[in-house]
Write a structure and sequence with these properties.
By secondary structure, this protein is an all-alpha fold. 74% of the residues lie in helices and 1% in strands.
Length: 291
Amino acid sequence: MIKNKLIKNANKVDKFLINYLKKQKKSLLVKPMKYGVLSGGKKIRSTIIFDLGKIFNVSEKKLINICAAVECIHSYSLIHDDLPCMDNDKMRRGKPSTHIKFGEASAVLAGSSLLTLAFEIISEKKYLINSKMKNEIIEFLASCSGHTGIAGGQELDLKFENKNMKINQIIDMQKKKTGKLFNFCLYAVGVIANKTNKDKKYLSNLGEEIGLLFQLADDFLDKKGSKHLLGKPVKKDNKKGKSTLLNLMGEKKAYLYANNLKKKILRKLEKHGKKAKDLTSTIEFILERKF
Ligand code: GRG
């Protein structure tokens, strides 16, 4: 069920991106960009955006640009994360990483081009929402992607390797590295749904918690998951001396922590009743997932 929903949503976003790139001038980077953003991936962030849109009655037409922009930023971060100067991973989404397929320089440039494409996609004239909303969304996306967001989190992740970090430092790093993009997903839907500042703050925090849950699941999968199902190498965190909650707390405590976090997130969704059915099932999937 959830798998079908993910595939359906991923196809919608891929179709949008293919059409968007088709309308632009051609360049040598389109091929590695497409390879990085279109070739596989669950596109779970887009599903969360659509799921939240259902709660607030926001049409998919108004959300598709946000989904496409988020997937561009996510894929750019993965392309750069796999580079030799970062995590040096040769496989991603069941295929050679972008730098293995196209070379390091093209991978850096294709990743950077996906980052800027995200902002083009939100600011384009044809996008249905008003300019005030676009500005607010763009400003927030920039802060979630840059040094106060995923790039800053990635820097901490690399600096924390082979160090004895405290639980709160790891949580802070993971909330930035992975949480900030989920934070953006929920915030952006809040903007388009015309929510109050208080509601948007609430949605931001909820997004960050969902991102932390997602990262915890990612850490469990690194230890126990299948390379075949994940499409990427496993058991890397220990080898690289990564600071994760799983390494610090041990399996039992980390799983308990994740399960309590999941329950906390689901409790927050209860007030939306049946409208939250889809988002609830996506949250359940995040912790149970095998891929
Ligand atoms: C310079 C802004 C900037 C970014 C580069 C490399 C980097 C900074 C950030 C990396 C952030 C990162 C790789 C976080 C990990 C998040 C994570 C758990 C990724 C896996 O996400 P999935 O499972 O992947 O959604 P798929 O393949 O399904 O899309």
